[in-house]
Specification:
The chain has 608 residues and is α/β, with parallel strands linked by helices. It is built from 20 helices and 21 strands. Strands 13-21-20-14-15-19-16-18-17 form a nine-stranded mixed beta sheet, with helices on both faces. It has a five-stranded mixed beta sheet with strand order 3-2-1-4-5.
């Protein structure tokens, strides 16, 4: 057996992935263990969890692979600073010590952290890792591949072709011209945090009008027919400064960037809508070009921009390809997975077997799990009142009854998700039929902006009943319109509403998951991949006639998704979640005592 450990680290969203003979055994992000959102540190705890799940030690590994080439990236950084002297000195002074102290010595860091001396340590290119993460787990024997993010070493996007165990990258866009950085610049300008707030811009876009699309295309982006482009760098500051945008950008759009946490204006919404439409146009042109160059029937996507599920849905609806598959951990975390698979298929030349209509991502449930025995010890030790259900079917029926009464439930079961989306293992569930569920969850549970939409989870067999989507969507990476049979026609008065005023107008009989443009970011679930989750939905459908629920990530704003039962209980107690499910245990908030100091709860991570 050949064990390969993939690692991504030191930029954002560090992660580890363990592959055995081409099979993805385990993968996890460091943030889930450290509780630091987007943690960029060496993923020591994530590696430990992967090794524990396989019951091996670091010295048992055959290869370790890092997801990009630090020396090439360092060359890009030095070249950029040299080209922008003296303006870039402040940024240079901040970045270079970290490179000299840490980022240039990856091989030594890995050997020291894992206490190994004889395991080969390899390096892939950043976008090669993205491409591998997109193609190799996909259900396609042949496919076009597009990777798009901020920047790797020099590449910001690539177009390639995968067949069998081979990937060939045919074309690339190079730094500083980057769709990811363009979107991040607007994220910064509208007052959200770069590298984590981009999805907020995507969610805000439907509240606005595309007033600035032409300005962006005339002034910021010189867009070509094949989806390549050049940015007008006078409007950006990321080459030499500590901000994303320049004074020229401020002048172009009529003022400075919005300060974080201040009131959103119609202008912010219009900017979000405009940059979203430009991003979609670029991605559509890239997809059409990839089709003409590869003649492939299917498309694979990865890189942080591939998490833009609105654009993904648009590519699908345009029918450029027969089908698309998107890596669930499309950002840097997924680079660890792609790097490991690159070693197996490209470095070692092993054959790739594809099962028709089935990917090898294992529903992206690749993290640690916790047994009923583990949970019982935790609950008993802390004298937490609970009810244990020997018969899980009785528990799923009880959960369905509570959800039908508009109770909000923290749902913790099975192996933790890999990637930014909660997929039913670490989720908060609610009744999609409720007119108040969105505001309750946003303000009392998630503690986040009121405009943010919630996603539905739907029985796979019912997906077309509720949404204009003719295929499964297990990873919540496609946006589709709510089926017209479930939509409500707005009155003339309601049609005239602008901005956030649109929020409280129910647009369907499942209003909690229907965005203001009648769209939804869909997750489908089947019994074979996630049986417990599926059975809850099935029980809810039997009770109410609706096979759809609200599914949002089990965390609060600014924190990672929960990992352990301790994390789940802490989140449960600090929010207005009504009930907590921990595998076969049910906890009722009314039975809970006030949460005392829990600083000593977070012990070193161990499995049963």
């Amino acid at each position: 057996m050949t064990y390969i450990l993939g690692i991504s680290a030191f930029y954002h969203d560090s992660a580890a992935c363990l592959v055995r003979d081409g099979e993805i055994l385990a993968a996890a992000q460091e943030e889930r263990f450290s509780r630091k959102k987007g943690d960029e540190a060496f993923p020591a705890q994530a590696i430990k969890s992967c090794l524990q799940l396989a019951q091996i030690e670091a010295q048992d590994l055959d290869f370790i692979v890092f997801y990009d080439k630090p020396l090439v990236k360092f060359e890009r950084i030095l070249t950029t600073y040299a080209d922008t002297v003296p303006q870039g000195f402040a940024s240079f002074a901040k970045a270079i010590p970290l490179w000299l102290r840490e980022k240039l010595w990856i091989k030594s860091t890995i050997a020291r952290e894992l206490e190994i001396s004889n395991v080969p340590i390899l390096f892939t290119q950043h976008h090669q890792a993205h491409a591998a993460s997109a193609f190799y787990p996909s259900p396609f024997a042949k496919a076009a591949i597009i990777t798009t993010d901020g920047v790797g070493e020099w590449t910001t996007s690539s177009i390639g072709y995968g067949e069998g165990n081979n990937i060939n990258l045919l074309k690339e866009q190079r730094f500083p011209h980057s769709l990811g950085l363009l979107y991040s610049a607007m994220t910064y300008y509208t007052g959200f945090k770069v590298n984590s707030g981009e999805y907020k811009v995507m969610g805000l876009a439907p509240y606005g009008q595309p007033k600035y699309v032409q300005t962006i295309l005339d002034e910021l982006v010189d867009l070509k027919a094949d989806g390549s482009f050049h940015l007008n760098l006078r409007y950006f500051n990321y080459l030499s400064g500590l901000t994303m945008t320049s004074h020229a950008f401020d002048k172009l759009f009529g003022g400075p960037a919005r300060k974080s946490e201040t009131k959103l204006t119609q202008k912010d919404m219009d900017l979000a809508r405009s940059v979203q439409e430009v991003a979609e146009e670029i991605m559509l042109r890239q997809a059409r070009y990839a089709k003409t160059q590869t003649k492939a029937k299917n498309l694979c996507l990865a890189g942080g921009v591939a998490l833009n599920c609105v654009a993904n849905g648009r590519i699908l609806r345009e029918k450029i390809f027969d089908d698309i598959w998107i890596q669930p951990a499309a950002g840097d975390a997924g680079g660890a997975l792609g790097a490991a698979l690159s070693v197996w298929y490209q470095y070692l030349g092993e054959n790739r077997k594809v099962v028709k209509n089935q990917d090898s991502q294992k529903a992206s449930l690749l993290g640690p799990s916790f047994s009923n025995a583990y949970i019982a010890r935790f609950l008993d030790k802390n004298r937490i009142k609970h009810q244990f259900y020997e018969d899980r079917q009785k528990l799923t029926d009880t959960i369905a009854q509570l959800l039908a009464k508009e109770k909000v439930i923290g749902f913790f079961q099975g192996r933790m998700e890999f990637g930014p989306r909660a997929l039913g293992a670490r989720s908060i569930l609610g009744d999609a039929r409720s007119k108040t569920m969105q505001s309750v969850m946003n303000l009392k549970i998630k503690f986040r902006e009121s405009f943010r939409p919630f996603a539905p989870v739907v029985l796979e067999e019912d997906i077309s009943k509720y949404f204009e989507l003719d295929r499964k969507s297990p990873y919540m990476l496609l946006v589709a319109q709510v089926n017209k049979n479930h939509c409500k026609i707005m009155s003339a008065k309601q049609e005239k509403l602008w901005g956030i005023d649109k929020l409280n107008v129910p647009r369907s009989d499942i209003p909690a998951i229907t965005h203001i443009d009648y769209s939804a970011r869909v997750q489908s679930v089947n019994q074979s991949e996630n049986p417990y989750y599926y059975d809850v939905l099935k029980a809810f459908k039997k009770l109410t006639g609706y096979g759809v629920l609200v599914n949002t990530s089990f965390n609060v704003r600014g924190e990672p998704i929960v990992c352990t039962p301790q994390d789940a209980y802490r989140c449960f107690m600090r929010t207005d979640i009504d009930y907590l499910v921990l595998e076969n245990f049910l906890l009722d908030k009314k039975d809970m005592k006030p949460l005392k100091d829990d600083t000593n709860w977070r012990q070193e991570f161990t499995l049963d």
